[in-house]
Amino acid sequence: MKNFLQFLFFVIVVRPVLLVILGMNVRGREHLPKKGPAIVVANHNSHLDTLTLMALFPLKDLHLLRPAAAADYFLANKWLNWFASTIINIIPLARGAVRKNPLADLEDALDRNEILILFPEGSRGEPEQRADFKRGVAYLAKARPDVPVYPVFMHGLGKALPKGSLILVPFTCDVIAGPAMTWTGDAQSFMGVLETRMGELASEGHFQPWE
Amino acid sequence: MPIPDALPENVFYAIAVIYGLLIVASIVVAVMKRRRPGEATSELSRRVTSWWFMITIFSIAIVTNRIVSTVFLAFMTFLAFKEYLSLIPTRRVDRLILLFAYWTIPFQFYFAHRNEYGHFLTFIPVWTFLFIPMAMTLAGKTEGFLRAVGTISWGLMITVFALSHTAMLLSTDKSVAGPAGGAGLLLFLVALTQFNDVAQFTWGKLFGKHKIVPKVSPKKTWEGFIGGLSSTIIAAAVAGPFLTSMPFYYAAVAGGIIAIAGFLGDITISAFKRDLGVKDSGGLIPGHGGILDRVDSLTYAAPVFYHAMHFFVFSGRV
Question: Deepest in the core among A37, A136, A159, B257, taking most CB within 10 A?
Fold first, then answer.
């Protein structure tokens, strides 16, 4: 039932809106993981980021996709909680240190061969401006060194639906996926490589400023 | 049961001829791909495949009925305008104004559908033109004001206003449109514009040497331009008497106008893309790029052809 509702939502709402109202230019689609376990890492501009990334995968793999999202935000009220857990199928993350291993749920998901979607900027922040990645992704890669990490750069959705706005304005969004990388041996070099790869993907598009 | 707004059969014959040309082109490209496999012929083959899709979608849209055709043209315009806005730098403060700019599309196409010449001509060039800077002024951010007003207004003109002339052609009264009605005129314009693009490309590939505007569009040559122009004039002289009210000699002139305007539209959009550092306006159509890449010639050809027809032919001057 849960899978069915999710499937329905993507077929009836997400895909038509993405195709007709927004439109996507996807580059490097062939790089995206075809099976789990895998970690997809993207920059974060808008609530639409998660839905767009999920829509890039075949519908049959929808149930494998697990976006990690802030528990304090998405579990804040009953409706959002239902939507986030049932339709988006998130893994709630506690912000700030609360437990001994905050990544335990993510590691478990990888052990179940699921595909994690992470936004290491932590929050949507200023739309269409990249913020530094937080290091949690490095610790996760260290804990599961064989799991490939797929960097994906996204542009445009922050213009269509930025933080703090409820009005959707049509803009074509660009998604640029790059080849996978794996754990490099230490957190600092891993983050360095990841940031460099994201920078390279970003510079593949000729994106104009948005202020 | 009478069919309301029935399409004149000439439109169907013209579509059949277009498919005939498409089959010939597909065979030629398939042979070329066989003889010289490689990236160039694969690209050509992708383009031809895309043509099959585009011609089929367009044909279905224009033979169904006039409302479907107009909605289809409005939707293509929406896609072109969206590509434009997604490429240019915009300001966050203008989000609502951009949303308003999108909403001009249904109104503009409604005026075109009703053939309301006065509203059609003033809605964007006068009212929207005055409204957008006013709304931006009231929003209160002056930084980047001129660039924002300029880019949004030009984008509305070159996409929404220019392309809405296709719908205006479609709603032309039967008494002046000719034996195939407004649909015939639309087909005449669109088929010849696209034919000119292909002819120009082909002549340019075969004989191209002397560049016209190397800094804007290095592949455009005089040989291609003149080859395209003459091919389009001949095609127009043949098709004109079937699809329009013009005898072959006026139709040939109309073909010349379409070829020249189409060429100018093409290089104008190229200049715009080059300024932004992009090669294609999008990735919607394999082998072609985005919608804006495909309708670039029409942004000039549609208004120029429409107004030439309006002034000379619909008015009875010639």
Answer: A159
